[in-house]
Design a protein that fits this description.
Radius of gyration: 20 Å
Mean pLDDT: 84
Shape: elongated
Low-confidence stretches: 209-214
Number of strands: 11
Number of domains: 2
Strand content: 25-35%
């Protein structure tokens, strides 16, 4: 699988070959398709797949893609919270920027990982950091430690800013928090895709409507 991901692959147009782990190469690949090409026909080279000797589906590959949200070092930064399609302004394609409930994460709060979010007060909502595209209308409040996080150094912040289009601007000392995880696997000839979103509380899903989408 590593060999497949690191290889350069053929594709449409004259800008190839393409590297599937390069953002710029994937953009070039997408732009190389003629505008009239149906989405279903915009295919990439398949990853290797070999059935096991017994004839059952052989495990060919797995990859993970963490979903990171930015939390500023000061103030209360909102992070979208998955509450099912009903908690989104777009129930057909409920991407995080359409979720209407957010958790205000507070780096100054010394509470531990066992502290679940509570409804935010008007004073807390007034302290929220403005994030470019979030559609929050309802807010909860929690210490930063309620979710896995890491502190960014200058290199991390620069990398974030070079890749993010609408996730906020990072500075050294800010935090990245693990809001979800995409898991892709090739256990059969087709890829499968699972998405797991962070849920607060000790008893997942803690009365929330679900943590995964297949």
């Amino acid at each position: 699988m590593a060999q497949y991901l690191n290889a350069k692959h053929a594709g449409p147009g004259t800008t190839g070959p393409y590297n599937y782990t390069s953002v710029s190469s994937l953009i070039a690949l997408n732009q190389a398709w003629p505008a009239s090409t149906p989405t279903v026909d915009r295919k990439v080279e398949e990853a290797p797949y070999k059935p096991s000797a017994s004839g059952a589906a052989g495990f060919a590959g797995i990859e993970t893609k963490p979903v990171i949200f930015l939390v500023k070092a000061s103030g209360l930064t909102p992070m979208p919270l998955w509450l099912g399609p009903a908690g989104s302004t777009n129930q057909t394609n409920p991407t995080p920027n359409t979720w209407t409930t957010c958790v205000l994460l507070d780096p100054a709060n010394t509470g531990g990982s066992d502290v679940a979010p509570v409804p935010a007060t008007p004073a807390q909502i007034a302290q929220k950091v403005s994030m470019p595209t979030y559609g929050c209308t309802t807010y909860l409040y929690a210490p930063l430690a309620t979710i896995y996080s890491f502190k960014m150094d200058a290199t991390d912040a620069a990398a974030w800013n070079s890749l993010q289009g609408n996730g906020g601007t990072a500075s050294a000392g800010d935090y990245g928090v693990l809001g979800g995880m995409h898991v892709n696997s090739k256990e059969i000839i087709d890829w499968t895709w699972q998405t797991f979103w962070w849920q607060p509380g000790q008893d997942t899903p803690n009365s929330f409507p679900g943590v995964s989408r297949a």
